[in-house]
Amino acid sequence: MLVLLVRPDRPDVESERKRVGLRHQPLGLLYLATAAHGAGFDVEIVDEVLGENAERRIEQLRPDWVGITVASRLFRRSCEIARFAKARGARVVLGGPHPTALPEHSLVESGADVVVIGEGEQTFVELLTTCQWDRVRGLCFNRDGRVVKTESRPPIEDLDRLPIPNRQLLRLQRYRSDSELGHYVPRGDRLIRLMATRGCPYRCTFCAGHAVFGRRVRFRSTESVVEEIRQCVADFDAHHFSFIDDTLTVQPDYATELCERLIRSRLRVRWSCLSRVGLDDRMLGLMRRAGCVMLGFGIESGSRTVLEWIRKEIDPAVAMDTIRRARRHGLVTKTFWIVGLPKEGEREYRESLLLAKRLGSDFAIPSVFLPLPGSEEFDRMQRAGLETDPNRIISVSSDEGESRRRQRRFLREFYLRPAYLYSVLRHLCGASIRQHLALLWAFLKEGAGLG
User: Fold this and answer.
1) Domain map of the chain by residue range?
2) 2-149 shares its CATH topology with 179-447
3) Segment 344-377, tens digit of pLDDT
């Protein structure tokens, strides 16, 4: 039985950033592929982020099953693929954040056979191996014209039970241009993405990340994480890694143990991760000794009014101190921002831009607010009777409204200020100059409305 797993994409979205190397490995899909392959199924991954075309591969391979991972902004594209696969005789299953948040809507709109709700590895394998779907926890499907939802599946408690992802299924050489903004990867090397934790305890109102993994953080053993890194070094001669956890440092004791184990391993790898602000010198120094080269921080807004509304429990003064300390330890820093959040007017927007400049991170990445299904803001808009049709979310992400104009102003004003351009000179004698300039050009093109 052939299972085709698909990550949809729109080639016209963020094309310039992808061209310069932001073609990220679909780690969630790889976990599913590894689980299905381990259960005896033939599995192939189609990744449209690489320019592949799902319909073409479905026509060529005629798979028995087509599984599609669905992000909200790509729901329309996912529906196109689902209908095409159904017309070619395949059974179609949807999974990921959007179907988990809106299972019934996703099932009906796409015409898929079944939706996997939440973490998918165990549910997906059981789905493939039985015809009695009503006995499989974590499913939503149509039976005799009636939508059926089975009992919820609890989160996987022991993450070490999941096999280490089989990256041979991903054909890793296709992602040689994968990079992490701010984490320089030499041309002859490659970047490997991995996860040490699942779940996020914070309650930011704009975020839907908890829809799949929940709010309670679960941890892999540090032995398992280092063993995965060791395997990648041995099998792929890879020495650069990016942790894609929501917040790797959420539990300081765990982060400390992981760093100490990496130091003892003598693997001499370089890695990057996301963190909350508030790290002290002890932790930053330990992370640096363990091979950390880049830290990303979600700041979101410089307005205390907006921060309080979205329940982003950070203090701009602490953010300033953390980034200053991180740079003193030789770490590259990047900050993430959201324009168009509720309560943001021109004043609040200018406060964000001012704070971004004062923080002085190496990179600042502004995105446009979307009311994502599964987030509190989406639920709030529904209760208020505002437009929250999931089918319209993708059009919001590509509009030419005020939020998009603010995003472009943010990019221009941050990257074209003299202080930042002067800082670029620090990279002119380093090996990362080609990547640094290419990424800077990508952001400037987007800021000019050309990307």
Assistant:
1) 2-149, 179-447
2) no
3) 999 999 999 999 999 999 999 999 998 899 999 9
Rounded CA-CA distance 363/210 in Å is 26
Amino acid of residue 326: A
Pairing of strands 65-69, 42-47: unpaired
Q: Give yes or no for a contact between 152 and 137, defined as CB atoms under 8 angstroms apart.
A: yes
Helix axes 121-129, 27-38, angle to 10 degrees: 40
**Distance, CA of 194 to CA of 168 (rounded, Å):** 15
Q: Average the pLDDT over each of 11-15, 46-50, 232-236, 336-340 and give the range with the smallest value.
A: 11-15
Question: Can you tell me the distance from the alpha carbon of 81 to that of 231, in angstroms, rounded to the nearest whole number?
Answer: 35
Amino acid present at 4: L
Query: What one-character-per-residue DSSP string does 53-71 give?
Result: -HHHHHHHH--SEEEEE--
Name the nearest CA neighbour of 413 among 370, 368, 349, 369.
349
For 388, the enclosing helix (H) or strand (E) is: none
Looking at this protein, which amino acid is placed at residue 182? G
SS3 442: helix
Which residue from 3, 96, 92 is spatially nearest to 45, judged by alpha carbons?
A: 3
Cα(377)–Cα(363) distance, rounded to whole angstroms?
Answer: 27
- pLDDT tens, 392-432? 654 554 445 888 899 999 999 998 888 887 776 665 555 55
The conformational region for residue 169 under phi > 0 = left, psi -120 to 50 = alpha, else beta, is alpha
With beta carbons less than 8 A apart as the criterion, state whether 78 and 8 touch. Answer: yes
**278 three-state secondary structure:** coil
Q: Which of 180, 239, 164 is nearest to 24 (CA)?
A: 180
What's the CATH fold of domain 2-149?
Rossmann fold (3.40.50)
Q: Can you tell me the distance from the alpha carbon of 5 to that of 194, in angstroms, rounded to the nearest whole number?
A: 19
Q: Which residues pair with 242 in a beta bridge?
A: 193, 272
DSSP summary character for residue 217: -
Question: Which is more confidently placed, 405 or 176?
Answer: 405
Instruction: Return the CA Rg of the chain.
Output: 22
> How far is the C-alpha of 169 from the C-alpha of 41, rounded, in Å?
12
Mean pLDDT value of segment 268-280: 96
**Residue entry with tokens 């990279």:** 427
**Tens digits of residue pLDDT in 74-115:** 999 999 999 999 999 999 999 999 999 999 999 999 999 999
> What CATH number was assigned to the domain covering residues 179-447?
3.20.20.70
